[in-house]
Write a structure and sequence with these properties.
By secondary structure, the protein is mainly α. The chain has one domain: Rhomboid-like (Rhomboid-like fold). It is built from six helices and no strands. The longest helix is centred in the middle third of the chain and has 22 residues. 26% of the residues are buried. About 8% of the residues have low confidence.
């Protein structure tokens, strides 16, 4: 729901919110460290929002059930920051989106599956 509300705010602000929170390397280098987290809650368009929310709705409950509520929040936040940090290192292009966070949740689920498979 938060992502949907933020997307509505993005559109209502005529993308000013996007510019304020997007991953912009020069701004991060200048000390705007919040930009390592905020892109995970912003979306480029409605399809991007729907795709990310689908992934969150599909994988989120599984990871949260395995990890617990608090650890899920930590995985979500750390994955979001790590994804943005990787984007910062590997591309100069501005970006928004939660792809890094989604990958983190997916890796957590895959790691759990491998651990379970090796103990059986």
């Amino acid at each position: 729901m938060t992502n949907v509300l933020l997307y509505i705010a993005q559109v209502a602000s005529r993308q000013a919110l996007t510019v304020w929170g997007a991953k912009i390397n020069a701004a991060i280098a200048a000390g705007e460290a919040w930009r390592l987290l905020t892109p995970a809650f912003l979306h480029g368009n409605a399809l991007h929002l729907l795709t990310n929310n689908y992934a969150l709705a599909s994988l989120g409950p599984i990871v949260e059930r395995i990890s617990g509520h608090a650890r899920f929040g930590v995985v979500y936040g750390v994955s979001a920051v790590a994804g943005t940090a990787a984007s910062y290192v590997f591309t100069k292009a501005p970006s928004v989106g939660a792809s890094g966070e989604e990958e983190g949740r997916g890796m957590r689920e895959e790691r759990r599956d491998r651990a379970g498979a090796s103990t059986n």
